[in-house]
Specification:
Length: 476
């Protein structure tokens, strides 16, 4: 696929997002199970693709002769670059919005995780928001304030109307400081979460679509009651805009989600297949991208031979399908390689975690990994979304390794996830008849060089769904 670049008046370059590039980006975002489903669909739809045997090369690992033969068949109509020339990173950087909806693994059966290790309770709305908060660049106080706000969000995604005033009083800060943190939360997925009214919820979603202050925005601002009554005539008259504009505004509004939190409110159980494995070999850690169950795609020899027949009436059709098949195989290979590079970088930053466990998790943000492997943050975000790694410490979502920093006087900063692990261990070792209070936890953490406020301890304890010391106490 030729990569087309256009030069704007401001001398900025923009990539043309062809369907093939969109497909490559979507493949990177998929989990292992989703990728298996997509490849099976491609096998059904593209006659040039067929599933090979275990002796065939893994996806993207074709030999040089076949690669040359494929490229020759594409002809001069499409000067597709070789695999190593495909600027994968630029493709990913070019897409600023989320798009709509091999070789043997080498892991033996007795090394695979137990079935119950692949069970995971689906995260609640609150946990989904906390995960995003961990990856946000905030001060320690802002992070704690964000946790406070998240805890106040209802299952429908809304906050109480007086939350800013109440939070400012609770934290002893100006209301504007609370508003700053709230704006960060309102940028999280699902869009519209953290609103204090239906009007604000819809405005958040419209702004995210680039429709701020347009007709739909004005309708939401002043005519929500008319929208509910489907009274378009009143809206047209009062806004003084054409009927067609109001109809389009109504269509846009009807596609918004008035209760954004409900999609994540239910607690369901899901099954997880690791996307990547980390094994310790000697003193080093080895990353193995999971290709178990992935069909070994190859070009069909039969249909490929038809391309050499100059009189073949279906040649143009087969050439198109060959382009698609070749691009898919290459995209899979690039996807697997990119996941491996990101995981290797995470290991470099979080080596102590892989050696000693969750208590040794360090502060880490997307930018750290992006800079270490010369990729864009959006690429790292896509790679770590909906993907899991199986380690000696257990099964973890890749986003787990990114967490905010907590300062320690005269010592290296510690990750917020590590602090929660410390709290969990202290509570696990307490007396059933004399449990540790939050204030006592503050003191015990302080002895370890972790200086945090009592309310922060309380928030972390609640995040882990650990009851108060009074509720944990056993009388008999």
């Amino acid at each position: 696929m030729a990569l087309e670049l256009k030069q704007s008046q401001k001398m900025s370059q923009h990539l043309v997002m062809t369907p093939q590039l969109q497909q490559a980006i979507k493949l990177l975002q998929l989990s292992h199970l989703e990728l298996v489903d997509v490849l099976q669909e491609e096998l059904q739809e593209n006659p040039l693709l067929e599933e090979g045997s275990d002796e065939d090369p893994a996806p993207g690992e074709s030999d040089d002769d076949r690669e040359v033969e494929i490229d020759a068949d594409l002809g001069a109509q499409d000067e597709e670059p070789n695999q190593q020339d495909i600027d994968w990173e630029r493709y990913l950087e070019a897409d600023g919005q989320t798009l709509p909806f091999g070789e043997s693994l080498g892991v033996h059966g007795d090394e695979m995780p137990a079935f119950d290790a692949t069970l995971s309770a689906a995260g609640s709305l609150a946990q989904h928001l906390r995960d995003q908060l961990q990856m946000s660049v905030l001060t320690s106080e802002q992070h704690s304030m964000g946790l406070f706000l998240i805890d106040a969000i209802g299952d429908d995604g809304y906050l109480p109307e007086d939350i800013v005033a109440a939070s400012a009083e609770e934290w002893g800060v100006e209301a504007s400081q609370v508003e700053d943190v709230l704006r960060v939360l309102q940028s999280f997925d699902p869009l519209g979460v953290g609103a204090r009214s239906l009007r604000e919820c819809l405005h958040i979603q419209l702004a995210a679509q680039g429709l701020a202050h347009g007709t739909a925005w004005r309708v939401v601002e002043d005519h929500l009651e008319d929208v509910q009554r489907r009274d378009l005539q009143t809206i047209v008259t009062r806004l003084g805009v054409p009927w067609d504009d109001v109809r389009e505004a109504m269509r846009q509004i009807m596609h918004l989600q008035p209760r954004p939190g409900l999609a994540l409110a239910e607690d369901k159980t899901k099954y997880i297949v690791p996307d990547v494995y980390v094994r310790k070999v000697g003193d080093s850690f080895v990353v193995i991208v999971n290709e178990e169950g992935l069909p070994r795609l190859k070009i069909s020899p039969y249909y490929g031979s038809l391309l050499h027949d100059p009189k073949g009436s279906a040649k143009s059709y087969l050439q198109e399908k060959l382009r698609g098949a070749t691009w898919l195989i290459r995209s899979i290979h690039m996807r697997q390689r990119t996941i491996a590079r990101v995981m290797e970088s995470i290991i470099e930053f979080q080596k102590e975690f892989f050696e000693k466990g969750p208590s040794f998790l360090k502060p880490l943000i997307l930018k750290d990994v992006a800079e270490s492997i010369a990729m864009h943050e959006s690429t790292i975000s896509r790679v770590t979304s909906n993907k899991y790694v199986h380690t000696a410490q257990g099964l973890y979502e890749l986003k787990y390794f990114f967490n905010s920093a907590i300062k320690r006087p005269g010592a290296e900063m510690i990750g917020s996830e590590s602090v929660r692990e410390h709290i969990k261990k202290l509570i696990a070792a307490e007396s059933e008849h004399d449990p540790i209070s939050d204030q006592q936890l503050v003191a015990l953490l302080g002895k370890s060089g972790i200086k945090i406020a009592r309310r922060t301890v309380a928030k972390y304890r609640e995040m882990m769904r650990i009851p108060t010391s009074t509720m944990r106490k056993k009388v008999f």
